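Deviation from plan, reported transparently: magnesium ion complex.
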Amino acid sequence: MFPSEADYQRAVDLLLAGELVGMPTETVYGLGADAANPAAVARIFAAKGRPADHPLIVHLAGHDAVDYWAEQVPDVAWELMENFWPGPLTLILKKQAWVPDAVTGGQDTVGLRVPGHPVALELLRRFAAAKSKHAGIAAPSANRFGRISPTTAVHVAEELGERVPLILDGGACKVGIESTIVDCSRGEPVVLRPGHILPVHLEAVFGRVPAIITAAGAPRVSGSLEAHYAPTTPLRMVAGERLLDFINAQRHRGGRCAVISANQPPQAGMPHAWRLMPADPVGYAHDLYAALRDMDHAGVELIVVEALPADPEWAAVADRLRRAVAGAGQG
Ligand code: TXA
Ligand code: MG
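Because the crystal trials were delayed, the predicted structure below was used instead.
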């Protein structure tokens, strides 16, 4: 399953030629292009159908490339890199003047991440060896704009098909939801997107829990648009204690629904499309997008999701589901 020598070679050749490559990371699959080549980056936006003023994350092979892309990197950012890279953490930093607007959406900052996936790292190292030692791969999640992020190579092919000439298969993504984004470019670090790395983990580095500023106030973070990560089937959150009644009522009305629940196993007479999720937030995150995708293909009129606990450990999953609800049913 993992890429062969020839696959890596082809991926590097495509990147050098300004073409796109689908690549696995530990969070979700990315749609990669040479981050220093504006024409290549423009291809990403075209393939996704994404507005061109949305900034992209630049993936690097290691910390030593950071100064090439970013300037005035504060100490706290270096500490975060030491603690969490390679891994599911993106840092927003002041950009170097040369960094193309195509990557930053015209902002004065750039998002950087060293991903914790062996295939991504191998590709980044080989690309850097072939191009220049600081080379980076700009990669948003490899889905069409607003849709569910892909966590397998098959999902990428479903999303983008012919639009991407090569997809490297690195298996199912371990984390399953996008990286935590921390903005270190304006003094006190703030979280722009919750993820697998939680505020409590960041607290161990900062000495306090960082503020979380999503949506309003954040500069064009597409994951912070209200509607995102969305299936084409309408989606509805229902409290656990009301779940069975709600589903029964739907069935009496003749409505076909699918169910995603972490606590309630299916019972006799219940809908056939029923996904029992792991009851812990890490396991749930891992399965979330695949579950949404499966249920979206189940031929139902409504996807019912059991509401999640309000604890902080569930914040990242709850964030993705809230946006999925806002965007669902529009396809
Ligand atoms: O886990 C991830 O982060 C995945 C994998 C492929 O690395 N990538 C990902 O990319 O989720 P994307 O483009 O779908 O989401 C990246 C987010 C966007 O919401 C984007 O607006 C934000 O990062 N971002 C990138 N650069 C930024 C910047 N300079 N300032 C603020 N937000 C930025
Ligand atoms: Mg995305």
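The longest strand covers residues 89-94. We consider this an acceptable substitute for the interim report.
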